[in-house]
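Hi R.,

As promised on Friday, here is the backbone we talked about, encoded as structure tokens. Could you run it through your design pipeline when you get a chance and send me back a sequence?
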């Protein structure tokens, strides 16, 4: 499709020019000088302009539809079992946040820097909310995201998932292979074991499974958050709400507080992870 650029200002100038031309051509001093052939030609040009504008409108509408993603229905529930994804908070917390994220995603980094500290302090470390991190690396756009996710799981083998996770999120613009080993050293890992794990591709299939699970839920970008309440079995989250993008703390706080207000179970604080 040939690109056609026109603004509201351009169309107004075009219409004004046409009207001005008609006034000049149809004035008493000029009518006699114009042949019927000239007038017919002018009318044809005006028709062509009108048809051109209609075509532009159709093309712009087609572009708008292409750029507007279809609305995805929010699932009614989300399975938690089996779920060995890393989590923070009390295991028995009734309120659960599941985040699908990408270590190289700037919006994930923004949420981590601006909202997560308050969520961690006010809700996760107080035992009110359990937070689950699920990988969703957008490999096509973020070439280091998949290996960064592998690095976090390799750190988990040595009991250091969250320190490594936080180091990676805090350096989302510097996740090349060499830096991964530097972060491993900084958080106290055995770097030789870590390097061996990352270079083996041990966790690639696990990460790909998480991506497929996210896609089934309608996840197609990052970050995406699912917030809800565990059912009686503790195996599912119900009363789901979905949030896309770097959600602000006040907005997430409002949603969490609403769910907490409906709960009557006592909450026991849990030590920090």
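Update: got your reply. Pasting your designed sequence below so it's all in one thread:
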């Amino acid at each position: 499709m040939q690109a056609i650029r026109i603004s509201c200002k351009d169309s107004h100038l075009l219409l004004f020019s046409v009207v001005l031309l008609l006034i000049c051509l149809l004035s008493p001093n000029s009518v006699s000088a114009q042949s019927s052939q000239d007038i017919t030609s002018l009318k044809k040009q005006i028709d062509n302009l009108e048809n051109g504008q209609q075509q532009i409108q159709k093309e712009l509408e087609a572009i708008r539809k292409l750029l507007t993603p279809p609305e995805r229905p929010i699932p009614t529930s989300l399975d938690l079992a089996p779920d060995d994804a890393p989590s923070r908070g009390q295991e028995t917390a009734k309120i659960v946040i599941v985040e699908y994220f990408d270590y190289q995603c700037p919006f994930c980094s923004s949420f981590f820097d601006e909202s997560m500290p308050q969520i961690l302090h006010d809700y996760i470390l107080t035992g009110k909310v359990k937070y689950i991190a699920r990988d969703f690396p957008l490999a096509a756009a973020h070439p280091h995201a998949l290996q960064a996710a592998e690095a976090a799981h390799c750190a988990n083998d040595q009991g250091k998932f969250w320190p490594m996770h936080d180091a990676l999120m805090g350096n989302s613009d510097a996740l090349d292979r060499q830096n991964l080993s530097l972060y491993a050293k900084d958080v106290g890992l055995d770097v030789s074991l870590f390097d061996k794990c990352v270079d083996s591709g041990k966790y690639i299939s696990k990460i790909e499974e998480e991506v497929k699970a996210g896609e089934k839920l309608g996840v197609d970008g990052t970050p995406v958050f699912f917030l809800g309440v565990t059912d009686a079995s503790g195996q599912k989250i119900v009363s789901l709400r979905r949030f896309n993008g770097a959600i602000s703390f006040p907005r997430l706080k409002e949603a969490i507080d609403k769910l907490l207000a409906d709960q009557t179970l006592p909450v026991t604080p849990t030590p920090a992870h």
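One thing I noticed while checking it: Residues 78-261 form a domain with the Glutaredoxin fold (CATH 3.40.30.10).

Thanks again,
M.
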